[in-house]
């Protein structure tokens, strides 16, 4: 089993990132279940706008797409910006749109059999809205969702606290993160053993 986390903070490395921290915590739980993984901060790469696999002119998406194709589990980690996923996260979804034209020999999307999950952070409410946006998009693109496919933390409204400023994950977040990892891994193994039929 292999997992890939796309961290969709607006800040390139090495800037601190609450989204990156929560993604690392999810990946640690997945690793404890025997899942290998990689974390990619999307803002470190030149991903061109568009809905093709390769937009040319130095587009970094094709190399990142290869990582998606090699993964059994895809995690999108995003901050909440103005009540929505970050623009970087939206760019990832837009580039994944090209997969709607890519099928195997039985007419199935290449993303069938891959499991998706989300990690959301912010200092305002909106985690449920953001995860629902991600879930609909990812499901349209052929990914499957296990129960409890999101872990999140939101601070008090109109305050400046960040997840990365906490001494550690609150118990509710840690428990939710563990459930996400367990269920995503379970579903990924089931789909690996029994792929979806052609339709």
UniProtKB/TrEMBL annotation:
Pfam families (UniProt xref): FMN_red
Domain annotation NADPH-dependent FMN reductase-like: ranges: 1-148
InterPro entries: Flavoprotein-like_sf (IPR029039), FMN_Rdtase-like_dom (IPR005025)
Domain of life: Bacteria
Protein's name according to its UniProt entry: Flavodoxin family protein
């Amino acid at each position: 089993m292999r997992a890939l986390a796309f961290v969709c903070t607006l800040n390139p490395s090495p800037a601190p990132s609450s989204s990156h921290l929560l993604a690392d915590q999810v990946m640690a739980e997945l690793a404890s279940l025997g899942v290998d993984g990689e974390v990619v901060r999307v803002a470190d790469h030149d991903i061109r706008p568009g809905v093709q696999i390769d937009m040319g002119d130095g587009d970094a998406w094709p190399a990142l797409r290869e990582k998606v194709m090699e993964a059994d589990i895809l995690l999108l980690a995003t901050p909440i910006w103005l009540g929505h996923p970050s623009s970087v996260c939206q760019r990832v979804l837009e580039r994944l749109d090209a997969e709607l034209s890519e099928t195997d020999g039985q007419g199935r999307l290449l993303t069938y059999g891959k499991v998706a999950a989300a990690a959301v952070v912010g200092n305002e409410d909106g985690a449920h809205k953001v995860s629902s946006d991600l879930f609909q998009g990812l499901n349209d693109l052929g990914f499957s969702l296990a129960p409890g496919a999101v872990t999140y933390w939101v601070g008090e409204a109109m305050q400046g606290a960040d997840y990365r400023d906490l001494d550690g994950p609150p118990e509710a977040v840690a428990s939710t993160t563990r459930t996400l990892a367990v269920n995503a891994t379970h579903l990924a193994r089931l789909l690996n053993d029994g792929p979806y039929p052609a339709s």
